[in-house]
Design a protein that fits this description.
The chain is mainly beta. It folds into two domains: about 5-220, Jelly Rolls, CATH 2.60.120.10; about 235-315, Sandwich (Jelly Rolls), CATH 2.60.120.10. It has helices at about 20-25, 60-75, 140-150, 215-220; strands at about 5-10, 10-20, 35-40, 45, 45-50, 50, 85-90, 100, 115-125, 130-135, 155-160, 165-170, 175, 180-190, 195, 235-240, 245-250, 255-260, 265-275, 275-280, 280-285, 290-295, 300-305, 310-315. Strands 2-3-7-14-9-12 form a six-stranded antiparallel β-sheet. A five-stranded antiparallel β-sheet has the order 16-17-24-19-22, with no helix packed on it. Strands 18-23-20-21 form a four-stranded antiparallel β-sheet, with no helix packed on it. The protein is globular, with a radius of gyration of 20 Å. The relative contact order is 0.19.
Length: about 325
């Protein structure tokens, strides 16, 4: 299948969202109000990406894998296995809740799914940061007491970020995102989130959002202290490597290319900035904000027409 696979975004209302996807990515949003997430690639019972253009135009991602699984994912990929990666753009105008995703060893017993995710900071305001992990010395007991006293920020690790930074957030890591960040989130296919603290905020319905205190306390890794992000840089490098996926940062100057041979593995190409042509076809381009699947069966050459930055996700099939 010698064509990149494009998807129709699915926009999600979130109380902490905004309208930055319009200006930063040049998107036309489907409705008014705070749009917090654009689900770029998703294969879940409650949400299905629809393919745009080419052989699979109009098919859901599930239908495409059912009908063309060997070409898209490789000959050994089970046709009934959901696509393993979920990609989102996050427009965080307000701080997200403090939350955790259950580790793989306890998620089934809790009726949930593990979720390891990577955050790439595309844009950020000067004061915005991230919360990932615990401050050194924080304990489960101190954390539980801080929940009651509303002093939880004393227990969690917050650090400033700049555009180009990224961090891998494993299941079991307590985390939150400050307002002022535009983030590309590449994650394990899961939608299980336990909300432990919401900073006193009301939901879109004017009521406090549900908390999951017991589930959160059971899921948090109490030995994960002050993890460090991968700071912004321009060299080609692996920025995330986990059991679930690997992400490579690929900067391209105008005229430079990156190529992928057929029959290796499927990959996802995310354009963080710039424009790339596909296989030297001037009319076939991926632009800032696009997230596309490079099928297993295809051979691809991505060439920058302007200085560009790609994230290549692999090792997930």
């Amino acid at each position: 299948m010698q064509e990149v696979i494009r998807f129709q975004p699915l926009y999600q209302d979130r109380v902490w969202g905004g309208r930055v996807l319009e200006t930063a990515l040049g998107r036309t949003l489907p409705r008014e109000g705070p749009i917090g997430e654009s689900w770029e690639v998703v294969d879940r019972p409650e949400a299905q990406s629809v393919l745009v253009g080419g052989t699979c135009d109009g098919l859901s991602i599930r239908e495409a894998i059912d009908q063309h699984g060997a070409a898209l994912m490789g000959p050994d990929y089970p046709a009934d296995r959901p696509f393993p990666i979920l990609i989102k753009w996050l427009d965080c105008r307000e701080r997200l809740s403090l939350q955790v995703h259950p580790p793989a060893e306890i998620a089934p017993a809790m009726g949930g799914e593990p979720k390891t995710e990577n955050w790439y900071i595309a844009e950020t305001t000067g004061e915005a940061g991230l919360i990932v992990g615990l401050k050194k010395g924080a304990t489960r007991g101190a954390f539980a007491s801080a929940l009651v006293d509303n002093t939880l920020e004393d227990c969690v690790h917050r650090f400033p970020v700049q555009a180009g930074d990224s961090i891998l957030v494993h299941s079991g890591t307590v985390h939150a995102i400050d307002g002022g960040n535009l983030i590309l989130e590449i994650q394990q296919n899961s939608d299980t989130t336990y909300r432990v603290y919401d900073w006193g905020r009301m939901g879109l319905d004017g009521k406090p959002r549900q908390l999951h205190i017991a589930e959160s306390l059971a899921s948090i890794d109490w030995d994960l202290f002050e993890p460090e992000p991968v700071r912004a840089a321009r060299e080609d490098a692996v920025i995330a490597d986990s059991q679930e996926f690997r992400i490579r940062r690929v900067p391209l100057a105008a005229g430079e290319s990156v190529s992928f041979a057929a029959g290796e593995q499927p990959r996802l190409a995310s354009v963080v900035s710039g424009v790339v042509t596909v296989n030297d076809a001037a009319a076939d381009t991926l632009t800032k904000g696009d997230n596309a699947l490079l099928p297993y069966a295809g051979e691809f050459k991505l060439t920058a027409t302007a200085d560009s930055l790609l994230l290549i996700t692999e090792n997930f099939a």
